[in-house]
Amino acid sequence: MTVITLADIMFGAVGLVAVGAALAVVSTSHLVRAGLWLVVTLGAIAVEFLLLRAEFVAWVQVLIYVGAIVVLLLFAVMLTKAPIGRSTDLDRPIWPALLVGAGSGLGLATLFAWVYASDGISAPPVGSAEKLGQNIFRDWVLPFEVLSVLLLAALVGAIVLSKKDAKS
Amino acid sequence: MVKLPPMDYAAIMPLLILFGAACLGVLIEAFVPRRARNITQLLFSLAAVIAAMVFVVKRAGNVTAANAITAGGAITIDKAALFLQGSLLVLAFVSLLIFGERTLEQGGAFVAQAAVTVGSEKDKEQAAKSLGSTEVYPLALFSLAGMLLFVAANDLLTMFVALEVFSLPLYLLCALARRKRLLSQEAALKYFLLGAYASAFFLFGVALVYGYAKAVDFASIHTAAAVGAGNITLLITGLGLLAIGLLFKVAAAPFHVWTPDVYQGAPTPVTAFMAACTKAAAFGGLIRVLYVGFDGLGWQFTPVLGAIAALTVMVGAVLAVTQTDLKRLLAYSSVANAGYLLIGVLAGGQLGLQSVLFYLVAYGLTVIAAFALITLVRDADGEATHLSRWAGLGARSPLFAGIFTFLLLAFAGIPLTSGFMAKLSVFGAAVDGGQTWLVIFGVISSIILAFPYLRVVVMMWLSEPGESTPSVSLPGVLTSTALGVGTIATLVLGVAPGLLLDLADKAAAFIR
Fold this sequence. Notes:
Structural class of chain B: mainly alpha
Largest sheet of chain B: 3 strands, antiparallel
Number of strands of chain B: 5
Order of helices and strands of chain A: HHHHHH
Helix content of chain A: over 70%
CATH superfamily of the largest domain in chain A: NADH-ubiquinone/plastoquinone oxidoreductase chain 6, subunit NuoJ
Number of strands of chain A: 0
Radius of gyration of chain A: 21 Å
Largest sheet of chain A: none
CATH class of the largest domain in chain A: Mainly Alpha
Number of helices of chain A: 6
Strand content of chain A: under 5%
Shape of chain B: globular
Mean pLDDT of chain A: 83
Radius of gyration of chain B: 22 Å
Distance between the termini of chain A: 76 Å
Oligomer: heterodimer
């Protein structure tokens, strides 16, 4: 007999916020608002991480996703289009997206409900900075270092694609 | 205090050399004067590939279970990995030669400033005069290093990282064609978007498999699947998503739609590199996932993957018939070849593995030679890839038309070429493995596919050269070498395949 704790209820409620905000991201026709809704989604996911006692991951989520990526996204919108108000050219037939989104969402939900109803999920280990650091810099040190090389490759690529001679 | 896991530096040296050389290549961009850059970068990259090859060869033959898994369990350098790494290095060496060619066109096949508006005055000026970009060498090395890691990854997470490392530079390289730049940019964008999608599928698959096995390394997945712990649906769904990601990379139907556009739009040296090396790396990863990670499932996935293989060989062959552009034709032929390789993978066992390893090398060398030859047939606007332009080429330049005919016959699988031996070994293994129905599809597809190849041959030799038949440029030393190596390998592997087959046979062993 499992007991539903306050943390479980909060987890569910915050999850609903995340999903609702995600729906708003893809359904609003204001580009900037979509970006701001993304803040809510990603922030809610950070709270979920906190509730799962993974505080380091939560703060990384806030720093990288809410902080850097959304800001980058908004900057990109501002520098390329800077639309104010609705963007009418974003209208697309809604049913393919609805079909794919609802289908995969429901499918995965059913799968997880079915699988974990019988097995249950063991309590997650605490995701502290110490534990993550141990993991990343011991077992996963090589893939981690390779990821930094990937960033370098992306950087070189960005420069190659965007460079123009200043003169002439 | 965090202690590093024990590292077998001799085993991962090829990786370290290539990553290091790619980083140094970026510095060369910064400090070497522009005129000397191409030759410096080319020699430096080739030297790095050779150095990596030396370490691979040195290690081949003395791998045991005790020294194969290293870097905290992230990497397995077993015999199959060494064979794949060795063949990737050879194929990349030959492709890099085409990258470096500068005598066909001033400045080579790559655009100097990709951001200049297509069709503007400045664009015309740079198409005619500029020196071309040399950042392609570090990017190609990054990609190659990622491929070497991909075939040696011992867990799904490392595999995902490697997948990204080898894909991202390829997306970028596709966008850098000097001629037909709009096609090239479109190709890069399509490849990037679809590739990102496929990566997402792969990553979700990893998550589901982790949910099942509580680990991402192949040994644990194998054990969990063999024991049958937990809900098997999770594992099957995970494998399905993983397979979508991998089948996208090998260009199997129905995940092949990017192939013709990307092969056509990318600069031809990059197409050659992709056709040979990406295919080898992606199949290397696929066989490791299936043979090492999911072997515990008892090959329950064979019917589904078999259906995909059958679909792939048929789609590739039938659509190749309708093509009017040579690069697109070869792209669909590459789709069909992915299907033949899948048949070999599904054959299972030692024989299946051996045939796939042999096929990858044989096909790679032939396809590089074919694309090298395509770079030679040009007019004022660059390469003339439309089929009609190749009519009557036999009269203009019998030598090159002859070589191309030979390569096409190899693709078609005519005896005395490597293509014949490769197909024979794959189909033979499949019959042995009880997959005769796949062989039937494979043979039908080969027969259909022979038609477009022979049409090109007939066109080259039996049509009169018209006004619009382009000239065949005399290749420089680099392209000649690449073309020569590819053609001779196609012949030698067809006449005397024993040596490579032996090597592949010895290499067909994974360590879990």
